[in-house]
C-alpha cells in the first residue's frame, strides 16, 4: 500500500523531461549518486509502478523512472512503426546521454524487461548491470514455450486486432483494468489511488501502449508459435539479476526455468513464491532488498 509515510517521502521525487531524438520523455528521479539506474515499466503502467524502488534505491544511486514513449506524459508518436523495439532501445541509450553518462544499470519489468534485455544485447558497453522482473530472456521464453503458456499469453494475439481492444479496455472507465489489478495481485497491493493513477495515464493514451504489441508482432508471435529462432542463441554478457513472482498469471514458472542459460556473466536469481506479475508492487521490500544486494555486488 502507498501509505502516508511513503506519500510524505514522495516529495523527494523530482519530475523532468528529456528530449531524446524526436521524442520528449517524462521521467521521475530521486537521488544524487554517481551511478545511474534506469527503471523501465511495463504494460499497462507508467513510472508510478516504480514508486517504492525510486524511494529505496535513491538513497544510494541516481534513479530515474521514465514514462516510456507513448505512455502517460511522454510523447506519443503517431506511427505504429515508432514503437518497434529498436526505437525503444534508442530511447534508453538516449536517456543515458541526457544524464551525461555512458552506462547505467537497467531494471525492467514486463515490456520494460524485454527492452532492457535488448539494450544489454545490442549495447553491452552501455549496461553495467541488468535486472529483469518477471519477463525472462526472449530465448528462454521461446525454448520453454508450450500450449499452456501460449494460452496464458492470449492478450498478445488479442491486441493485434484494430480498435476492439481499445473499446473493451475503456468500457466502464477501465473496469477490466481495475478487475485485473485486483484479481491478480496480493490483496491490498493496489489502492484506489494507485489504480486511479494508471487509469489517468491510459486516458492520455491507450492506442500507443497497445502499438508496442502491434509494432513488434513478428517478435512476439514468433516467440509464441515457434521454438527455433535466433533468439534462442542470444546471450548477454553483463551481470544479470532475474526476479520472479511465482504466482504470475501471464508468465508461468516453467517458462522462466532456463533464464540463466542466456547469460554469459555473473547471474543471480530471486524467486518470490507469494508474489505475482506485479512483483515490485506486491513485494516491494523483497524486491528492493534483491536489487540493492545485486547493485552492491563488486562484479
Describe the overall structure.
The chain is an alpha/beta fold and 299 residues long. It has a single domain, classed as 3-Layer(aba) Sandwich (Rossmann fold). 42% of the residues lie in helices and 17% in strands. The protein contains 13 helices and 8 strands. The chain has helices at 4-9, 51-57, 85-98, 111-122, 138-143, 147-152, 154-158, 164-184, 192-204, 207-215, 217-225, 279-282, 284-296; strands at 14-20, 23-30, 36-40, 62-66, 104-109, 127-133, 240-245, 267-272. It has an 8-stranded mixed sheet with strand order 1-2-4-3-5-6-7-8, with helices on both faces. Strand 3 (36-40), helix 2 (51-57) and strand 4 (62-66) form a beta-alpha-beta unit. It is globular and about 45 Å long. It starts with a helix and ends with a helix.
Largest sheet: 8 strands, mixed
Distance between the termini: 34 Å
The beta-strand count equals 8
Determine the number of helices (DSSP H or I, runs of at least 4 residues).
13
Provide the CATH topology: Rossmann fold
Mean pLDDT: 93
H and E order? HEEEHEHEHEHHHHHHHEEHH
- Per CATH, which architecture? 3-Layer(aba) Sandwich
Structural category is alpha/beta
CATH class identity = Alpha Beta
What percent of the residues sit in helical stretches (DSSP H or I)?
40-55%
Strand content: 15-25%
Poorly predicted runs:
1-9
Tell me, what's the shape? Answer: globular
Protein topology:
Layout (H helix, E strand, L loop, with lengths): L3 H6 L4 E7 L2 E8 L5 E5 L10 H7 L4 E5 L18 H14 L5 E6 L1 H12 L4 E7 L4 H6 L3 H6 L1 H5 L5 H21 L7 H13 L2 H9 L1 H9 L14 E6 L21 E6 L6 H4 L1 H13 L3
Amino acid at each position: 500500500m502507498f501509505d502516508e509515510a511513503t506519500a510524505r517521502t514522495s516529495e523527494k521525487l523530482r519530475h523532468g523531461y528529456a528530449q531524446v531524438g524526436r521524442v520528449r520523455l517524462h521521467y521521475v528521479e530521486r537521488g544524487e549518486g554517481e551511478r545511474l539506474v534506469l527503471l523501465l515499466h511495463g504494460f499497462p503502467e507508467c513510472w508510478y509502478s516504480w514508486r517504492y524502488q525510486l524511494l529505496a534505491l535513491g538513497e544510494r544511486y541516481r534513479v530515474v523512472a521514465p514514462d516510456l514513449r507513448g505512455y502517460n506524459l511522454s510523447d506519443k508518436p503517431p506511427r505504429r512503426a515508432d514503437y518497434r523495439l529498436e526505437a525503444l532501445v534508442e530511447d534508453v541509450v538516449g536517456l543515458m546521454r541526457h544524464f551525461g553518462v555512458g552506462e547505467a544499470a537497467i531494471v525492467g519489468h514486463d515490456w520494460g524487461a524485454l527492452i532492457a534485455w535488448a539494450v544489454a544485447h545490442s549495447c553491452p558497453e552501455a549496461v553495467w548491470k541488468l535486472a529483469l522482473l518477471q519477463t525472462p530472456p526472449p530465448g528462454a521464453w521461446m525454448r520453454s514455450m508450450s500450449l499452456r503458456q501460449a494460452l496464458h499469453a492470449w492478450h498478445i494475439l488479442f491486441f493485434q486486432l484494430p480498435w476492439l481492444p481499445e473499446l473493451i479496455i475503456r468500457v466502464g472507465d477501465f473496469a477490466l483494468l481495475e478487475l485485473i489489478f485486483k484479481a491478480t495481485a496480493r490483496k491490498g497491493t493496489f489502492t484506489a489511488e494507485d489504480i486511479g493513477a494508471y487509469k489517468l495515464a491510459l486516458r492520455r493514451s491507450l492506442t500507443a501502449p497497445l502499438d508496442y504489441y502491434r509494432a513488434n508482432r513478428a517478435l512476439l508471435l514468433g516467440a509464441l508459435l515457434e521454438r527455433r529462432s535466433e533468439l534462442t542463441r542470444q546471450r548477454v554478457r553483463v551481470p544479470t539479476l532475474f526476479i520472479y513472482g511465482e504466482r504470475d498469471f501471464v508468465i508461468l514458472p516453467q517458462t522462466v526455468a532456463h533464464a540463466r542459460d542466456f547469460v554469459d556473466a555473473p547471474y543471480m536469481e530471486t524467486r518470490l513464491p507469494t508474489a505475482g506479475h506485479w512483483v515490485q508492487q506486491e513485494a516491494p521490500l523483497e524486491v528492493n532488498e534483491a536489487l540493492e544486494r545485486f547493485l552492491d555486488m563488486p562484479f
